[in-house]
Amino acid sequence: MGKVNYKKMKGSQNLRQRLLLSTLSGTPILVEDIRADDKFPGLRPHEISLLRLFDRVTDDCVVEINDTGTKFKYKPGVVMGGRRVAHDCGVSRAIGYFLEPLIVLGLFGKKPLEIRLKGITNDSKDPCVDTFRSTTLPILKRFGVPSEGLDLKIESRGVPPLGGGEVVLSVPIVQALSAVTWIDEGMVKRIRGWTFSAKVSSQFEIQMIHAARGIFNNLLPDVHIFTDHKAGLQAGNSPGYGISLVAETNAGCCISADTTISYARGDDVGDMEDEKKELKPPQDVGEDMASALLEEIELGGVVDSSHQGLVFLLCALCPPDISKVRVGKLMPYGVETLRQIKDFLGVEFNIKMDTTTKTVILKCMGCGLKNLSRKSS
């Protein structure tokens, strides 16, 4: 066995993209200086959980972490997929944190993936599972992923600090993705939404819906927001409530905004700005999220700002053909994803400002990733 050449990287930022691109490109990585100067150095529980998740859905992957957790080696294996896989995501980050790299990874597996994920389904830090189902999965279909076998079932809710939620994700396999020209945003034709409440009164949902509709009904008639009140085991271990809103355009684009109100995690290190010391009234939540959705629509682009990274990644993984997408303002997460794509796949994007609409058009030639582990029929 020859010596493994590791690509050296520093810091804990963008760990999800690094692990995903490392696995898809077959590039072993060595990450050093992970919060080395922090009061609590090393990998956080959700980052270790993410490494375990990658280990679970791949075969022959090797992870070595040093004693302090400030340095690790990752040698990617073959993506296996498979049914009846289960993973506990813990409670330091929501399931949404794990879903984004997992869906892309699952597409290039040997078998279709069906995995049960346990933990927090809704929080204010990561995209919630409702948004994932209504907005993220349709984005994959744009790139040639079949609808059959692509699904996310929400079996129970879980909010911070104690979680207790459960979802089942199904991802089909593809031979390769399809390049896209996706620059027509269209006009918003309808708004859909989902509210949920767990271990609190279902009246909270009615108040959120009433407040959100108070803003939307002045702008368009087709507004429908569904409720999902959970009690007992399906409500998880902590009280909370939230709303996920999606604007659908006549060009088939989905723009989303969501939040969850719950008690703060007691054991979080840093990241204190997202924590809520007291629960915000549901009327304010409904109004704020309606306004947040309108701000996302105003920015323009075919996806909202939280989905920029995923779209850039899918474009880069397409066959060697030109993909072209329009986004609103480029967000830091999107820019960082572009850097990681260039670093691992050698794919560079041509970025051009559209001065008339104040949006950004990005073009790239895909790296031509093929699913070599897929069983030939």
From TrEMBL:
<dbReference type="GO" id="GO:0000479">
    <property type="term" value="P:endonucleolytic cleavage of tricistronic rRNA transcript (SSU-rRNA, 5.8S rRNA, LSU-rRNA)"/>
</dbReference>
<dbReference type="InterPro" id="IPR023797">
    <property type="entry name" value="RNA3'_phos_cyclase_dom"/>
</dbReference>
<protein>
    <recommendedName>
        <fullName>RNA 3'-terminal phosphate cyclase-like protein</fullName>
    </recommendedName>
</protein>
<keyword id="KW-0690">Ribosome biogenesis</keyword>
<dbReference type="InterPro" id="IPR000228">
    <property type="entry name" value="RNA3'_term_phos_cyc"/>
</dbReference>
<keyword id="KW-0539">Nucleus</keyword>
<dbReference type="GO" id="GO:0004521">
    <property type="term" value="F:RNA endonuclease activity"/>
</dbReference>
<dbReference type="Pfam" id="PF01137">
    <property type="entry name" value="RTC"/>
</dbReference>
<feature type="domain" description="RNA 3'-terminal phosphate cyclase">
    <location>
        <begin position="9"/>
        <end position="351"/>
    </location>
</feature>
<dbReference type="InterPro" id="IPR013792">
    <property type="entry name" value="RNA3'P_cycl/enolpyr_Trfase_a/b"/>
</dbReference>
<dbReference type="InterPro" id="IPR037136">
    <property type="entry name" value="RNA3'_phos_cyclase_dom_sf"/>
</dbReference>
<comment type="similarity">
    <text>Belongs to the RNA 3'-terminal cyclase family. Type 2 subfamily.</text>
</comment>
<dbReference type="InterPro" id="IPR013791">
    <property type="entry name" value="RNA3'-term_phos_cycl_insert"/>
</dbReference>
<dbReference type="Pfam" id="PF05189">
    <property type="entry name" value="RTC_insert"/>
</dbReference>
<dbReference type="GO" id="GO:0005730">
    <property type="term" value="C:nucleolus"/>
</dbReference>
<dbReference type="InterPro" id="IPR016443">
    <property type="entry name" value="RNA3'_term_phos_cyc_type_2"/>
</dbReference>
<dbReference type="InterPro" id="IPR036553">
    <property type="entry name" value="RPTC_insert"/>
</dbReference>
<feature type="domain" description="RNA 3'-terminal phosphate cyclase insert">
    <location>
        <begin position="184"/>
        <end position="298"/>
    </location>
</feature>
<dbReference type="InterPro" id="IPR020719">
    <property type="entry name" value="RNA3'_term_phos_cycl-like_CS"/>
</dbReference>
